[in-house]
Amino acid sequence: MQVLVLLLWTGSLLGHSSCQNVAGSSEGSLAPDSTGEPVEEEDPFFKVPVNKLAAAVSNFGYDLYRLKSSASPTANVLLSPLSVATALSALSLGAEQRTESTIHRALYYDLISNPDIHSTYKELLATVTAPQKNLKSASRIVFEKKLRIKSSFVSPLEKAYGTRPRILTGNPRVDLQEINNWVHAQMKGKIARSTREVPSEVSILLLGVAYFKGQWVTKFDTRKTSLQDFHLDEERTVRVPMMSDSKAILRYGLDSDLNCKIAQLPLSGSMSIIFFLPLKVTQNLTLIEESLTSEFIHDIDRELKTIQAVLSIPKLKLSYEGEVTKSIQEMKLQSLFESPDFTKITGKPIKLTQVEHKAGFEWNEDGAGTAPSPDLQPAHLTFPLEYHLNQPFIFVLRDTDTGALLFIGKILDPRGT
């Protein structure tokens, strides 16, 4: 009976199938075009160039996440797709038309009419990495040793993306140390130094790194954190530190199509985390994953209702280091690894060899304040609502200002990756 009441109250959060993988085509009212046929009006949010670009690269991020998740069905997944998208977007500056179009399609740039995507990207990066956001994100292009690079590539790269390419020395130890020093400087020491050797046969290596430590708008009481059961599946249970709040103010909805309860918690710096929690304990989160697009998440943000609930969340500290090369190849980008045209970079034939990603993510009880914001007035419920993240779930870290996907995770076991 409770589910029926909630469903009537929130409505079913629909619209995700109709806007799958379309940058900036969120649902709007229908208006007739010149032929008299009804056409969908664009959501005003996506008419802002930086928001539309954020939607495009975020849809790339959801694609990348799906591929990584399907390749790791029984393991946690943690990605900051924006850092990888940034590296690819920067690389496209050095691509001739055929190769540029290949990259731009993967990033959904072909669906947006923006005469200067790269300057808009600069604005996006400045917004999401502003000091109050607590996000550190950086990307880099590394080239094979002794490569002569055209200054006509380096200058716009530095202007739009704030980075300079690195040319390898050919000494694996020296190159690893230099890359580690760069990561350490960019992430302010928040990500551990890598022990992975730089491959000897690199032509182009893309590197995307990111770190985030969330700060809730309302902090949790550390005295209420305790070891509680987390159900790995229907049979196995582990004990993990769970943060609790018996009177949490959050935004909530139930999606009957996806059979999941959705909750959104605000973070300082105009950011939020959206949680997708299946109604039944399961490690198969495919149905939810297939629905994730920028437009669906934007629709959710508009649909959720503010309520008061009994809330529990596992403390989380996760990291990822590894290749996303195979996933990138599967995104119709195989040609970048075979015979791309990067003659805007150098006269020598070069191709993409490897895409590396390093990410760190954590949240604990830390928050900006002890009381909910006074402008958050929860809806009155006739029954107590509980939201316990005590089984496998998906989370999305989203920048409220631009709609950009900053981090995404599949948490099957909160004890670590």
Automatic annotation (TrEMBL):
Domain of life assignment: Eukaryota
Signal peptide: 1-19
Stretches assigned to the Serpin domain: 62-414
GO process annotations (BP): epithelial cell proliferation involved in prostate gland development; negative regulation of angiogenesis; negative regulation of epithelial cell proliferation involved in prostate gland development; positive regulation of neurogenesis
Pfam families in UniProt: Serpin
Name of the protein described by the UniProt record: Serpin family F member 1
UniProt entry keywords in alphabetical sequence: Glycoprotein, Secreted, Signal
One Gene Ontology term of the molecular function aspect: serine-type endopeptidase inhibitor activity
SUPFAM superfamilies the UniProt entry points to: Serpins (SSF56574)
GO cellular component, one term: extracellular space
